Amino acid sequence: MLTKNQSGFLYMFMSVCAFSFMDLIVKWSEHYPLGQVLFFRGFFGVVIYFFIMPKDRIKNFYLTKRAGLHFLRCLFGLIALIAIFIALRNLPLATVVSISFAAPIFTTIFSIFFLSEKVGFYRWLAVSIGFIGIIIITEPGFGALNIYYIFPIIFCLGLSYVAIAIRQLSTTEPVWLIALNFSIVITLASLFTIPFGWVMPSVQDLVLLCMIGFLGGFANLWLSQSFKLSEVSLVSPLKYLALVFGIIFGYLIWDEIPTIKTLLGALLVVASSLIILRREIYHKKEIPSTTRHE
């Protein structure tokens, strides 16, 4: 019989694996229109949540008194999802994963404006270290490749607002409803891309595209369950396994070898996130959620 901490550790590990394989399939799917890939992510995410919601809410699952905040959460979540999909298609996998770790940095900044939180010296130090890491990775410029570096940063910005919105919504709304509404919005938004051309997938490709939705849906559930069962300080560092997976998958499948600047920048970003995490635990505050919610 596993303890709560051990169970949380296992759920976090499964979540990281699921997100990593989802990123892998998204990067592979570059020959399919982006809107079509979004449809599979959204539709099959919806399917999962209908199986886990309480039976007495199936007929009235949409009822909420906070529709406006749900809309904002879905809007910024959709922007973040599109941005990370574009980034995965145009940048090395390890690079995208590295920059995505900067989400807690932006969450810290947003918490000042949206949650009126006070940020002390150590958290500002962490933010500064993280930004230096991002600059090292992206090498800001105007080259064709550099333009795509903005998309994982947009993902971090969108995800950071999503984290704030979820913290506000979760005080009154069940987690499954927050996630379900997002999957529904993804599905509906993707349907507007049909006139721009969709590609009929083969049976094998259809299975892989469906897996994007299943993996994303289960990854979010496992991540939420992990934070529910165990200490955040125990399970959060496991998220950085995604960088290891990104390096391995990128090398084995696309012959991508991470550069020294990518690894150095990733180290600084990870260090900044860990500083934020440790300071929050020290002061016994609620850790800002960095759940991907894709």
Features:
294 residues; mainly alpha; single chain
Secondary structure: elements and pairs:
Elements: H1 4-28, H2 34-52, H3 67-90, H4 93-100, H5 103-114, H6 121-138, H7 144-148, H8 150-169, H9 175-191, H10 203-229, H11 232-235, H12 241-254, H13 260-282
Helix pairs in contact: 1-3, 1-10, 1-12, 2-9, 2-10, 3-8, 3-9, 4-8, 4-12, 4-13, 5-6, 5-8, 6-13
Q: So how many helices?
A: 13
Q: Name the poorly predicted regions.
A: none
Strand content: under 5%
Helical fraction? over 70%
Global outline: globular
Count of distinct strands: 0
- Give the topology string: H per helix, E per strand: HHHHHHHHHHHHH
Mean pLDDT: 83
Radius of gyration computed on alpha carbons: 18 Å
Cα distance spanning the termini: 31 Å
Largest sheet composition: none
- Based on secondary structure, the structural category is mainly alpha
Characterize the structure shown.
73% of the residues lie in helices and 0% in strands. Helix 3 runs antiparallel to helix 8. The longest helix has 27 residues. It is globular.
Summarize the structure.
This protein has 294 residues and is mainly alpha-helical. The chain starts with a helix and ends in a 12-residue tail after the last helix. It contains 13 helices and no strands.
